[in-house]
Amino acid sequence: MAKGSPGRAGLIGRNLVRNRKTFAFSSVGIIVGIAAFVFFLSLGAGIRKVVLGDVLSHLPVNVIEVVPRQSSLNLFSFSTPGLLGGGAITDDSLDRIRAIPGVAAVAPEMVLGVPIQAYGQFFGKRVYTDLAATGIDPAIVAEDVHPGLKFEYDPDGPIPVVASTHLLELYNSNFSDALKLPKLSREAVTKIDFKLVVGKSYLGGNPDPSKVREYPCRVVGVSPKAVLVGITIPLEYVRRFNSDYGAKQKQVYKMAYVTTERASDVAEAGAAIESMGFEVDKTKKTVGGVLTIATLLLTMFSVLIVALAAVNIAHTFFMVIYERRREIGVMRSVGATRGDIRALILGEAACIGAVSGTVGILLGWAGSRAVNLAAARFIPPFPYKPDEFFMFTPGIAAGALIFAVTFCLIGAAFPATRAASMDPAEALRA
């Protein structure tokens, strides 16, 4: 710029103030798009945190869940050998998996194939119920056992039981209110004692009285690895009961937890297990992918709004440049270069993007707060209902602001080039 002329920042400020109504109108699309962008991104991040963090995060990154291929994951469903499947998971299968390079440990889970029922005092009432049960390696749930208690095979003591975290959440969020019963904490659950009747079931017909046995049980922990509807006990109890009662499942496992030496070994070990004809459970990966796609689609909708707003920004700058062509001619005649003119227009666009982006971010945040308050007040409790449906992070805000400025610069790029290439003499004659 020529010596003595107003500074570039001063010119940008004066032009923005002079055309504030025009720029404010053209900024509406940017504001709406950025607000939607922030809203959907923070909603997706919040839902991912709940689903992948609270619901599906029970396995470390170096643990693989192995299930029979082409089999249902129902409690009593097992695959049979076939052309595509590897058959049931047996002790021989586990030995082959243990031999895979990088595998550190294999812990199987077995279904109890014997009819059982339980009874005990719950909230002052005597309750009888049929149950399902699985047996699991104690090491898999060691971190979920209450301090001071043990989850191990003891033929002379009460049978230690681990209850499902998901079942506890379901009870506290739905059944406790419906049945007018108190909610249970993890500590309260570990104080529950009951009797387990093995070899007898309401649905199993008339049992052989000589085979019916009764055992005391004690809940020692709550784990997301426990069977959802039923109880999980140490594996040796299930082996023993299945063998004593001649259950068909006595040598067959429902699934196996495979621990690799390093997280980097998971992919190779998983591929080797699949080549044996078994299936690696990809539930967490699949759910994460679905959430990512849903968030991406909603975000793309926001991007479309901002892109359309960028077109509107371009149209606005074309109009503003047309009205200021004499002014641009004067600036060029007193020494302003094409780069000065281009920088002036792009500077105005950047300021519009920064202001519009900031307003959009605040609106998106306010919208997320409003939805959280409404959800807390009007949506009834459900399992894993989060306190916050949105995860608003500085990264999302910074990304949205950069996004707004970038699209405004893109929208103003061609008008800025057009203004910079304007002939000064022709502009002065306009």
Molecular structure report:
The protein has 430 residues and is an alpha+beta fold. It has two domains: 8-55 and 287-429, no CATH class; 63-281, no CATH class. Helix content is 50%, strand content 16%. The chain is built from 13 helices and eleven strands. It has helices at 8-18, 20-26, 28-55, 91-98, 165-178, 186-189, 235-244, 266-275, 283-323, 325-333, 338-378, 394-420, 424-429, and strands spanning 63-68, 103-111, 116-122, 125-131, 133-136, 159-164, 193-198, 213-223, 231-234, 255-260, 278-280. A six-stranded mixed sheet has the order 9-5-2-10-1-11. A five-stranded mixed sheet has the order 4-3-7-8-6. Strand 3 (116-122) and strand 4 (125-131) form a beta hairpin. The protein is elongated, with a radius of gyration of 33 Å. 33% of the residues are buried.
Question: Would you kindly provide a brief summary of this structure?
Answer:
The chain is α+β, with helices and mostly antiparallel strands and 430 residues long. 50% of the residues lie in helices and 16% in strands.
Please outline the helices and strands.
Layout: H1 8-18, H2 20-26, H3 28-55, E1 63-68, H4 91-98, E2 103-111, E3 116-122, E4 125-131, E5 133-136, E6 159-164, H5 165-178, H6 186-189, E7 193-198, E8 213-223, E9 231-234, H7 235-244, E10 255-260, H8 266-275, E11 278-280, H9 283-323, H10 325-333, H11 338-378, H12 394-420, H13 424-429
Parallel strand pairs: 5-9, 6-8
Antiparallel strand pairs: 1-10, 1-11, 2-5, 2-10, 3-4, 3-7, 7-8
